[in-house]
Design goal:
By secondary structure, this protein is α/β, with parallel strands linked by helices. The protein is built from three helices and four strands, in the order E-H-E-H-E-H-E. 38% of the residues lie in helices and 26% in strands.
Length: 90
Amino acid sequence: MMRVLVVDDVVAVASLHGRFIGAHPQCELVGTVGSGPHAVAAIAELAPDLVLLDVHLPGFSGLDALRAVRADAHLVQPEVIALTAARDID
């Protein structure tokens, strides 16, 4: 069973991702959080196998959350899929 954490500050988007995860028989949704700091804390607490990580988050970005997790050798290192709905090229 793949344990999945969803990180997105838009509740409707997080809910949609969670429903997709829940519909897959080999996946278990272990949590949903909506900020960079909460993402780091949830990864430390829940040790998910996979994180669906929004790039633009309050607190600090999803990329900064990923950097913090990768820098902590004590954490289980999940696979990460970075997601964004941003359309700006910069």
